[in-house]
Structure formats: C-alpha cells, structure tokens
Amino acid sequence: MNLSVRHLRAFTVLAAARSFTRAAEQCHLSQPAFSALIQNLEEQAGVRLFNRSTRSVELTTEGALFESVAARLLNDIEHAFDELNDHANRRRGRVTIAALPTVAGGALPPVLKVFRDRYPGIEIVLKDVTADACLELLRTNQADIALSAAISPGRDMVSEPLLSDTFHLVCREDHPLATRKKLLARDVRNLPMIKFAHTSSVRQHLDAAFYPNTPPTELEVYNLVTAAGLIANGIGVTLVPTLALYQFHLPGLVALPIRLPLGDRDICLIRRRNDAGSSAVTAFVALLRESWAHIGTSGARRATRLGAQPAAPARGRPPSRKAKA
C-alpha cells in the first residue's frame, strides 16, 4: 500500500465538506485531480469510502470507520514534523552530560545557566561521576557527551582538550610550607597526604606524576569537602587541581602552586566516534567551546589564602560543595 499524507488530507477534507468541488478547492487541486486521488485511495483500501450522487457525497460504513483512523494518522504525522522542526530549531530536545564532579560543580554551571536562558525548551541532564563512569555512560548511550580528564578513551571515542588544569598543595597557613610561593614535586614527596580514591581522575594523575615513589598516605577519602575539613583541623595536606580549589575556601587554608613532572591535567570533551549528535547537543558543545576558551588557570598559579576570598570557581560559584574528585 502506498498511502500518502495527500491521500489522508484529501479524505478528511472530503469527509467534512461532503462536496468534491469544495474539497478540491480547499486542497488547491483541480476537481479531476482530486477525484483521481480519492479513487486511488479507495483502490488501495479495496472498498468504497464515499457514496456519490449528483446532490451529495456521504461516507460509507467503511468510510466512517476509516474517518477516525485517518484523522489520527494525519495528526500524528503533523505532530511528528512539528517536533522535528522544534528540535532542528532548538526549541525542544535534551542534552545529557556526564562530567567529573570537580567540573560539574565549578566550570560547568555558568555554561549551563547561559544555555538554559538561551534555549529554555531544551532539557539538561547532568550526571556528576568519576572518569571511568563518564566513559561507561557514553558507551551505553546514557550520555551525549562527557567532560573528563584526559585518558585513553578507546577507538570508539574521540577526545578534545578544552581546559588545562594546574595543581596546588592545600595546607593550613601554619604549615612549614605555607610561606612558599611555589613548590616542586620533591618538596612534598615525603609529606603524609590526604589522597582520593583510586577511581578518582585526580588520584590517577598524581600517582602517575609521582611514580614510582608516591607520597605516603595519611587518609584516603572520596569527597573534596571531606579533605578540606580534615586539613582545616590539622590533619594532613592534599594536592588538588585548580578547578577544584573552590571546595577548599575555609578559614586558615592556603593553596600553593606546584610543578609536577607530569605537568597539567587536561579536561576533555569526549564523544562517541561518528556520532554527530542532535541539534541540541551541537548547540551545547558550541557554547561550551566558546565559554571555556576564555577560562584559564594562569591566574591561580600563585599562592592563595583560601579563606580570605569567596569560594568561587573560574566563572561563578557552584551551589554545593559536595563533590568527589
């Protein structure tokens, strides 16, 4: 059966107008062309849908049965095209983002705010998870993009560096190193550290940077806010990326830039290979590139008294401190 939208529209118009002449005019067709269209529809259906006379046109029993079906099909088709048009013009859609918690709570919220204001009809889903979980969400089609540390994503993924993140030693202001302006890896190699879980991208970067002689472990935690509380109470020190410093703005804490053998940590946009993404995803990625092109970490390469200024990331303050590394 070769049923078209033209067939459905012609049928519904004729069923309402009860006149071939008026129905043809409403469909902007000549009467012979309109009659041929109805005849072709009846031939495909295998039944007569209209009873014709010189004075009137009436639905047959089969035509009456088909009327509600035709109206529903036509409405569904028009609705589908309206939806496609809304998605193409970014009035509707969804963007699902998997992001490291340090990114999700710091550099990302200002971008989300601009995007929501610009495209209020597009739904945003944010999943703040570890680097490994970011890739898993991508591979299982549970996320459109991932914002994670530079790792080997595999042949099914493509990775694009967007931000470069330096590291800092966070300690109390009464710590022996607190008056230093800059540090090298050898300055902290023997310090008992508050470290993050092995699944953390921060932990993985630092283990690689200090390999094979990593600093001793004071405590191992999952959350940045936990590390901040421990340090503020005189329990150990820690190493964190600049984009995570907003979690450590407590009185009495300082952040000292440190040069590591492995260098800076890249934060990357990771996507499935050969996946162009929807119009909504394309718009978000464009805004992300534009916004993050203006974010740098050079301003945080100096010693900072954390409790002396508002707790803010590179662009705007996040609503919560409960982030994992």
Question: Which characteristics define this entry?
Answer:
rod-shaped; 325 residues; alpha/beta
Describe what you observe in this structure:
With 325 residues, the chain is an alpha/beta fold. Helices cover 38% and strands 22% of the residues. The chain contains 11 helices and 14 strands. A 5-stranded mixed β-sheet has the order 4-3-5-13-6, with helices on both faces. Strands 7, 8, 11, 12 and 14 form a 5-stranded mixed β-sheet that branches. The chain has a two-stranded antiparallel ribbon with strand order 1-2. The longest helix has 28 residues, at 61-88.
Write down the Rg. Answer: 31 Å
Spatial separation of the terminal alpha carbons: 59 Å
Mean pLDDT: 85
Helix and strand sequence:
HHHEEHEHHEHEEEEHEHEHEEEHE
Question: How much strand content do the residues show?
Answer: 15-25%
Number of helices: 11
Order of strands in the sheet with most strands: 4-3-5-13-6
Residues in helices, as a percent range:
25-40%
Low-confidence stretches: 309-322
Tally the beta strands. 14
Envelope shape? rod-shaped
Structural class: alpha/beta
Main β-sheet, in a few words?
Answer: 5 strands, mixed
